[in-house]
Write a structure and sequence with these properties.
Elements lengths: L3 E4 L6 H15 L4 E2 L1 H4 L6 H11 L2 E6 L15 H11 L4 E6 L23 E3 L4 H12 L20
Parallel strand pairs: 1-2, 1-3, 3-4, 4-5
Protein name: TIR domain-containing protein
GO biological process, one term: signal transduction
Organism: Kutzneria kofuensis
């Protein structure tokens, strides 16, 4: 299963999640990056797939866009972002907030109580003005948690009679 789980709000952070997925997949292989809208097959139970992916990941990236903390719903059972993060916390999976352009550092009083710890976690940036550098920095931070993709096998054709 994928070593990197990308957590994001589909209403506001989907573009950044897709772009980061693309960059990390090139570096580590697409099978090492889980992004729900790409990684869950049609007809598959998404709740089971997400739970399994979280349980098997080595790190979770939490994409934080503008107004991210204002979108939490009252019922935790309907807020997948909250569910995914709290599940990762319960399993002590490393969580890295990835702040998008112009997003301020998370503050404990602005997030649900169960996510207050996230405000104390060192974050990374993913800014549209520095996409290459920021994606590389994120990849470097994750490199110790993710196995590199196996080298591509080069086929050699032998001449007949050898």
């Amino acid at each position: 299963m994928a070593a990197i789980f990308i957590n994001y709000r589909s209403q506001s952070e989907a573009y950044a999640a897709a772009l980061l997925d693309e960059r990390l997949s090139k570096r580590f292989g697409s099978n090492q990056v889980f992004r729900a809208s790409r990684s869950i097959d049609a007809g598959e139970d998404y709740e089971l797939a997400i739970t399994r992916a979280i349980e098997q990941c080595a790190a979770m990236l939490v994409i934080v866009g503008p107004n991210w903390s204002q979108h939490f719903t009252k019922g935790a059972d309907t807020d997948w972002v909250l569910q995914e993060i709290t599940k990762a916390m319960a399993l002590t999976i490393p969580i890295i907030p990835v702040l998008l352009s112009k997003v301020d550092r998370l503050r404990a009083e602005e997030v649900p109580t169960e996510l207050a710890k996230l405000a104390r976690v060192q974050y990374l940036r993913f800014d549209y003005r520095n996409l290459d550098q920021d994606a590389e920095k994120i990849a470097q931070e994750l490199a110790g948690s993710v196995s590199p993709p196996p080298p591509r096998r080069r086929w050699r054709f032998r001449k007949k009679g050898r």
